[in-house]
């Protein structure tokens, strides 16, 4: 996260919309450990299933990285497509899912999804730094590829939930969680906060992951705090991490814009109405 912010502008100039993720781009092995450690109690998956059940549906995972979440969706979905801009990760995702006949991974970005209109029921994006204030082009693309009634679900770290959120804010003092939430609220998302735990088998894994997520000083303080809170660490090392699950449904009706006044009000008309 810290590194992503630091190097962000450079890559943005190369490919508008693509936000570098040095954690997974440069340390995919450690990121694999991180993904396995995350959501040890399956809390995010439980909330996802409640909000947007994908059983028998077509799913797009945007910014899928090396495809860690694709097999899990594939277990119940009709089809799954991962979309990822970083070519080495596209190749890793394809390798991971080569045995899964209902899964494809395509090169592309949230702002230019390589998918037809109205072709999926769920667009999922996890720890998707590219979905933040100003991401309107990506939100429009998600709406384009969703069928009416389909859902866009963005799963992100909650910078207001400590201790992880506190470490994030220490590295990103200008990050304004309230402004981010306001942006998504205005865009019509509802937000569910989810408390999870990350679980590491050993101290080396814990340290490696925190070192790719934070600046050296913050990582050192974070490691110290987790070691202190885990005592004998008989069951490995765990720490609480909060997430925000943002959900927006594509209307099933036709949206009529009200141009009769300067207001931006609109109404949704059911297609079943005569
Ligand atoms: C922190 S990683 C998370 C990967 C994956 N979602 C996961 O949970 O394992 C963020 C991913 O978003 C990708 N990304 C960055 N900018 C993007 C954009 N504009 N559209 C789609 N993906 C993007 C990065 O290449 C990276 O793979």
UniProtKB/TrEMBL annotation:
GO biological process, one term: methylation
GO molecular function, one term: S-adenosylmethionine-dependent methyltransferase activity
Keywords associated with the record: Methyltransferase, Transferase
Residue ranges of domain Methyltransferase type in the record: 61-154
Record bears the keyword Membrane: no
Gene3D superfamilies linked to this entry: Vaccinia Virus protein VP39
Pfam family, one: Methyltransf_11
InterPro entries, per database record: Methyltransf_11 (IPR013216), Methyltransf_Superfamily (IPR050508), SAM-dependent_MTases_sf (IPR029063)
Keyword Phosphoprotein recorded: no
Name listed for the protein in its UniProt record: Class I SAM-dependent methyltransferase
Species whose genome carries this gene: Amycolatopsis acidicola
Taxonomic lineage of the native organism: Bacteria, Bacillati, Actinomycetota, Actinomycetes, Pseudonocardiales
